[in-house]
Design goal:
The structure holds 2 protein chains of 2 kinds.
Chain A (H helix, E strand, L loop, with lengths): L2 E3 H10 L5 H25 L25 H16 L5 E2 L3 H7 L17 E10 L2 E9 L6 E8 L2 H4 L12 E5 L2 E8 L2 E8 L5
Antiparallel strand pairs in A: 2-3, 3-4, 4-5, 5-8, 6-7, 7-8
Chain B lengths: L3 H15 L2 H17 L7 H19 L24 E4 L3 H6 L3 H11 L5 H8 L3 H22 L2 E3 L3
Antiparallel strand pairs in B: 1-2
The chains are: A alpha+beta, B mainly alpha.
Chain lengths: 203, 160
Amino acid sequence: MNKQPLSQATRAHYSREGLSDKKLEQYEKMLQAAENKMVASQSKKYSVMSAVASILVLLVVAVQFYPTQNNIAFEIAQEVAKNHIKMKPLEVETDQLSDLKKYFTQLDFALIDPGMMADKTMHGARYCSIKGVTAAQLRYTETDSTNRITIYEVEYKPEIFGKVSNLDEGMAPEEIELKGLLVKIWVEKGLLLVSAQEEMRTE
Amino acid sequence: MLDRQKINKLFQYGLSLTMDRSHADDLVQNAIEQLLKQPYPPHNIMAYARTIIRNRFIDDCRHRNIIHFDSIEQDAPILLDESDLESLMIDRNTIDKLISQLDNAEREILFLWAVEGYTAAEIAEQTLVPRGTVLARLYRIKHKLQDYAERNDIVETSHE
């Protein structure tokens, strides 16, 4: 018999259920119509003062949806989400990767500057772990907001972390939404990277 | 806002409450209609939508004179930690039958724990019930599944 943990079996059970394409299209049209109406009324309101950022953006997040979810990926996402929500104090406060490299002497790998964070502001880092492996948690904020992003860097060990999308091979990160957060998991330059941030919302 | 994946997740949540596709669809449609009436999108749109679905489900049950969620006795046994459920190893071909053994409240908690990744404290906050009630229901989930499985020889407990 093919046995798996209750949580994984439950996720697989519900992932097989869904609305018909017709229904989904109907609901998308309802949401789109409301979105268009709101945009039209906003544009009307701010037609003269259009430099002010008050536009509603409808975000369609392309998330890879597997018939059976990767349990290890979900466990990683849960651990990272918990750490992000706790937001323990930084051990080193700096915006320079070189300072972090001097601080993190207990890591078996060299920290990298994640490509995805190129336009974000770094605030510092702290030690943490993912699935028992010592890791670094780096903390960023968006340039034009206070939205916090935590990035976890750890040596990629396939026997522990399973198969993960590799950015260097042109694959997109795996995305998991839970606890109001968007968690992304990927491999970059031989390291496992995981990011967590609040799910983007319309404004 | 809501994309297809999120809409389906709301449907799955509705299904965990109702075990009826048509009823779950109605709950989702009502939730979307209510959301569209808000002047501004709520901060956590999924949690807000689930609350609308839950409240509507409770209203529907009252209209039909059906008990929506069974009450829990005051000294009912509780699970110490939701991670205790992880020790259950399930044959994936029988999960449907196992879930059908649970009542509305238990299916809801199982969904929020397994699919949404919430802890008992977070489930309590989402569903506005005491954490002790959530832990008591988790206990009942575990033991119902174990009892059913033992009768049918389909569940084992991992001792790792």
